[in-house]
Design brief:
mainly alpha
């Protein structure tokens, strides 16, 4: 293959993937807005004779936007963690970020119940950052060649934090409230109750600005040093962003596992590891996957709903096992 042909393929393939993913996303957005218990008609939208416009603005559109922002940000957070740790089998829930954020929210609700929502998010972010910092210390002495050790240690580490959180919740009769943060569910999303998720949209945009530096530190310490990139600063900034994304999502709609694991792996197999090229596809595919799972949850037992974390947990587990079976 000549150099010009290789360059054409290098740019054309991601463009095809992004356009295809965007078309799928647009279809899913239309389906997500149309599906629900209340009657909604695209044809009656303008005259609003049956309340379709009001339903769109107060319920269907906020829910769809919340799903898209959550899916995109969690997928990008997963990609950032995989680059920082140089491991394809990690995501925020496998490095203790999600579990630590839930613990932070629980402690805030118990001891600082009057704290404003942004204050609770700040405490959850600090807890998530501390949890990830402890995890980074745990894996320092692990063999870098065994790529399955890091996610396994992360699962055990997250399980310990999760167990401690559940014990505290049980002792303080907060188990029911804890389930709101541990299990992602969009059934209660309405206008005025999801807007904090725009913050993770901004962090996702910041990740795109940092894309080249993240790609360089993913190539190795020597290359980063030769190119003048401060690896430690970029790495801890990325960890801080992942902690904030995890906390905002947990506080607003609850935790959703496997988004940050499955989506980056699929995109990497299609368009490679250059983040400047792959991050848009990661964001679009992350939004599409969460939208798709939410639609399944809404129609499979209509008019009742199955939370999106259950649907994504089943599909994500199957895909995770498939990725492990194909790992070299």
């Amino acid at each position: 293959m000549s150099t010009s042909t290789a360059q054409t393929v290098f740019w054309r393939l991601p463009m095809v993937v992004n356009i295809g993913a965007m078309l799928i996303l647009l279809v899913l957005i239309a389906v997500s807005i149309s599906v629900g218990v209340a009657n909604f008609s695209w044809a009656r939208l303008l005259d609003d004779a049956d309340g379709s416009l009001q339903l769109l603005l107060t319920s269907r559109l906020p829910r769809t936007l919340a799903l898209m922002l959550t899916g995109a940000s969690m997928a990008i957070a997963g990609m950032m963690m995989q680059v920082v740790l140089k491991n394809r089998f990690v995501e925020p829930s496998m490095v203790g970020a999600t579990q630590s954020a839930v613990l932070g929210i629980l402690l805030t609700s118990l001891y600082l119940p009057t704290l404003p929502l942004l204050g609770k998010m700040g405490v959850a972010t600090v807890m998530a950052f501390l949890g990830m910092a402890v995890f980074m210390q745990l894996i320092k002495r692990l063999p870098a060649t065994d790529f399955l050790i890091i996610p396994l240690v992360g699962i055990v580490f997250g399980g310990i934090i999760d167990s401690a959180t559940l014990f505290i919740a049980y002792q303080t009769e907060m188990v029911q409230m804890l389930s709101v943060w541990r299990f992602g569910d969009f059934s209660s999303v309405l206008a005025g109750r999801y807007e904090t998720l725009w913050l993770v949209g901004g962090l996702s945009a910041l990740a795109y600005i940092m894309a080249d530096r993240l790609t360089i530190i993913g190539l190795g310490d020597g290359i980063a040093k030769n190119l003048g990139v401060n690896k430690e600063a970029v790495m801890w900034l990325a960890i801080g962003m992942v902690a904030m994304i995890s906390s905002v999502v947990v506080v607003t709609v609850g935790a959703i596992s496997f988004v940050g694991l499955v989506v980056p792996n699929i995109v990497s197999r299609l368009v490679g590891d250059r983040l400047r090229v792959s991050l848009p596809a990661v964001a679009i595919l992350g939004s599409s996957c969460v939208l798709f799972c939410d639609i399944i949850g809404r129609v499979i037992r209509y008019p009742f709903e199955i939370p999106v974390y259950v649907v994504f947990g089943v599909l994500g587990s199957a895909l995770f096992l498939w990725l492990l079976s194909r790992a070299k």
